[in-house]
Q: What sequence folds into this?
DNA sequence: GTAGTACTTTATAATGATTCTAAAAAGGTG
DNA sequence: CACCTTTTTAGAATCATTATAAAGTACTAC
């Protein structure tokens, strides 16, 4: 299986559940945005075994920590994740409550002029809210 | 009282509670970031009357809708608000879990090249995550 | 392969922020 | 003041997320 090494290399045991979640998350043409609830539904559709909600939470957090998923900073009652881990940004359509990718090339270069002593920049994320 | 007109002009009755919350939010030299819990604490310290938590929620949402407060897009278990409603951005210190204002001038001009049909840009918000 | 250990999964309970409810209180108008 | 509408309130309800602790599984050494 193609995800066994990936998991092992990052110190995660390649359990059946994790491999199945990898299939759902990473085995698709396009990257996508999801909430835990979205993912739970998707798993129910695509996987015949049942995976407990707690495991889904654990796995998503583990994958995020390892850098296989990114959280999308947005105010919502649920946390949004992205399988696109490249450096990029988002549109947020307020009416449809939908996220749309915004590649780095679609945003001019961003230069943060202010420096904070002893801290370094980990990421720069742009959220563009859209209305009709 | 200086906030009576402000409230009346936006169609909100100037109740005792709303005026007191205005004092706490807007009667300070500097703008600040807060969660509902932060605000609740601040009110308890500064105001002798008790204001119910439900009223604080109602009022903050009403003020946000009227444009007197802004939500800060950030993934957290609590919603962060800002009394600084000018067009600006934020640093987020991951370790200290603290927000720091980033004026527009501290960020180079941002040019969103991609257009979405039938939608217009309402806001562009930048979140810069900081680590040690 | 087996034994031992550490990690993982699981169902369920607990937590905690936010929203809902419906009754009491207060503001606004004539 | 009398009336109607808006607002406040305490407490209950909701819902995403996290904690718990027992059972199951992966890995390592022999």
A:
């Amino acid at each position: 299986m193609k995800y066994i090494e990936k998991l092992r290399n990052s110190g995660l045991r390649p359990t059946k559940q994790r491999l199945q979640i990898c299939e759902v998350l990473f085995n698709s043409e396009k990257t996508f945005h999801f909430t835990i609830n979205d993912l739970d539904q998707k798993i129910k559709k695509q996987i015949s075994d049942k995976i407990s909600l707690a495991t889904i939470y654990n796995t998503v957090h583990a994958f995020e920590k390892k850098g296989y998923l990114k959280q999308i900073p947005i105010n919502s009652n649920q946390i949004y994740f992205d399988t696109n881990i490249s450096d990029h940004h988002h549109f947020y359509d307020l009416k449809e409550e939908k996220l749309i990718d915004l590649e780095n090339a679609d945003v001019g270069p961003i230069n943060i002029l202010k420096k904070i002593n002893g801290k370094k920049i980990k990421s720069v994320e742009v959220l563009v809210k859209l209305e009709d």
In short: Chain B has four helices and six strands. The CA atoms of residues 5 and 14 of chain B lie 8 Å apart.
